[in-house]
Amino acid sequence: MKYFDNILQTIGHTPLVKLHKVTSDLPCTVLAKVEFFNPGNSIKDRMAIKMVEVAEQQGYLKPGGTIIEGTSGNTGMGLALAAVIKGYKCIFTTTDKQSKEKIDILKAVGAEVIVCPTNVEPDDPKSYYSVAKRLAKEIPNSFYVNQYDNLANRDAHYEQTGPEIWEQTGGKITHLVVATGTGGTVTGTGKYLKEQNSAVQVWAIDSYGSLLKKFHDTGKIDMSEVYPYITEGIGEDFVPANYDMSVIDLFEKVTDKDGAVMARRIAKEEGIFVGYSAGSAIAGLKQLKHLLKPTDVVVVVFHDHGSRYVGKVYNDQWMMERGFLDVRSVKDIVSGRG
Ligand code: PMP
């Protein structure tokens, strides 16, 4: 018999899949590291387990303990899976702008979710961030994960994602492209690959409305770069401790529209039903086409699954309301011309 003892053991060893149509204008080979094959449907399972294991080793998390994090998304899913199998409680704080589905998904895997108001400053006692911190202080035997500054996040990618890509490409990778948020994926994976071959180029994809690219390029925190944007999971209004900016050769910004439109194209043209940030990653790579040559082997990380975005990127009405989908193309589809 061949089986895994529990679901956590199925994390990692995700496939690398060649792209054909959406990157047909690029001269090189483009391979997607499809991370929705993880049990929580995202790359964040890797770092969630790692952060829990390190907390156990360091004595922050003891049997029967409570995991606390401010999250509504992929990290919460990974932490919740770890909590189920390892016998911890999970409490997540989130904001009232998150969809009910996201909250229900976390509850489905046993987490308690506390919904906090969106329109308050981070240091307001009612913010999801402050509530998570306060709960961690008040609840005995609890551990506040803090994925932004917890360096086990980037270590997970140094230990797993990097070696997998190196091995899967037989060391032939020339470029790594990663849409970036906490910085864990790009820093950990990029550092490992550069240690194997210092010529590997690491390109990070940021969102308009985020200060990360400007910080990388100038070393300065420029708050004038920061404004609301729609793309989920990437970009920040501060620089998390997981970044080592020296690992990143180039930062490229992508608009909300270009990321969303490209995610839909990846689903339709490659049959890979990806999340929003995978669209941003490919859109960003295509903006950098002039830097690529035929012998290049580019690996792009696809962070999560499209099912999380059915009410958004994959909903025509949502796309039209934001000017991401032109009305004529929908009419064409309805009339059978599209
Ligand atoms: N895409 C999605 C969908 C994510 O959830 C995240 C995590 N915030 C990222 C990209 C960026 O990954 P990282 O936090 O490792 O930079």
UniProtKB/TrEMBL annotation:
<keyword id="KW-0129">CBS domain</keyword>
<keyword id="KW-0663">Pyridoxal phosphate</keyword>
<dbReference type="GO" id="GO:0006535">
    <property type="term" value="P:cysteine biosynthetic process from serine"/>
</dbReference>
<comment type="similarity">
    <text>Belongs to the cysteine synthase/cystathionine beta-synthase family.</text>
</comment>
<dbReference type="GO" id="GO:0016765">
    <property type="term" value="F:transferase activity, transferring alkyl or aryl (other than methyl) groups"/>
</dbReference>
<protein>
    <submittedName>
        <fullName>Cystathionine beta-synthase</fullName>
    </submittedName>
</protein>
